[in-house]
Amino acid sequence: MLFAAPTALAAKPVYRAPGVTVYADASAGDWGVRITAHEFEGIQQALSPSALHGSVLEVANPQPDSSHAVTLTNLPAVSRQGVPGSVGSPGSCEAQSFGYCLGAYTAARNPDGSVKWNAADANNAPSAAWLYQWEHAIVENDKRVCPGGSGATPYANRLVRDGAPSTAQVPYNPDVATTPHTVCSYITTLDVQRSWPGQSRFLIGSYKAYTGLKNGKAKYLSLFKELIRHGHAIAFTGLVARKYGVESPHLTRGAFTAPAGFLPNSGHGQVIVGYDDSVGPHGAFLVQNSFGAGWNPGPASSPGHNGRIYWGYNAFFASQAYAIVMFPNTNQPVRGTLLSTNASQAPAFAVASAKRAVDAQGRPRLVLVTHASDAVTVKHLSITAPNGAAESQKLNEMLRIGYQYVERASNAPFVSGAYKVAYTVLDRTGRQIVYRGTVHV
User: CATH assignment of 337-440?
Assistant: First the structure.
């Protein structure tokens, strides 16, 4: 996101020794809205993890449903996007949150939730600097440039499609520059056309998204906590709280509750990495920020300090708008019911499993876990039930392994039996391919 230059800050920064981050009150900053619902069109919301029970995407050994506090482990190191006096400029928070943080965490897991490697190692995390410049140069064709903001979903697509170089290969600020201009002078010279050794290590399987989070506590709180108990981190973006860019934001019973309110027409990306129902007046999410490990300092043993913070549930759902969860990739060969196509040299595409589920309101869904041998963008799904009833779903999701679902507005259940399915996808060249087959539910 785009953050204000130091001259726009409401308070002068406090002096720190050389090499130590200087924080300042950015409540007067023009941080700028950068994300809109258009980015998320065609991306389905993540279902309750129970909908994936028995599939290759089922997480083994989740935290108990009764857990009142969960802190995710094997998290990437806290990143630092800003410079002294301006903690958020350059405006790479989406690259830091949706790309670096959520990407590193997801790539370090297997689909069942087991750990592949240490996500805190710079060799094991995708480069935020490279992703940020890639999004500007390739996705936006330089319509925005550093230090401006960026999109969010392009980072998910990039990690499904090709991965990225590591933070060790392309560090964010290797020369410890102290002005946004100097940082940008380095970032804008990065070569985003080349392939990097080992970039496929950061491939992810797929992703799902949420829109309309604001004022959605009753709808989403229990689901977000269930996702966290199953090991999912959640990248999000929304309004910027006033007095959030200070070194030590005001906490109420250990949680940030945004007592000064929020800046209209603003935005900032971060990642939920846990929750605690006993923190703050009404419980809180544990949030990893990208202001550096010196922000919100506290005891080393406290998960809610030193670059992370507890965000009160009420404050979160009063201000945040969009979120993404990611699913890990697998190196296993494509398995399941292979669908057929007449397209030459098309990726293999299979329905690994199909099952019935219901949502919180009791509406029936048919959930299809799919696996492709290369990244494809699913554009349309249609099914025909054994009794001839047809359903369809427009989509716009890139995947290697993931799931899609169709749902009914009525309470008529999906019957068991053989279903005809047809998927319309785009391969990595943009070629449209139709896959057809029959799956048993």
Answer: 2.60.40.10
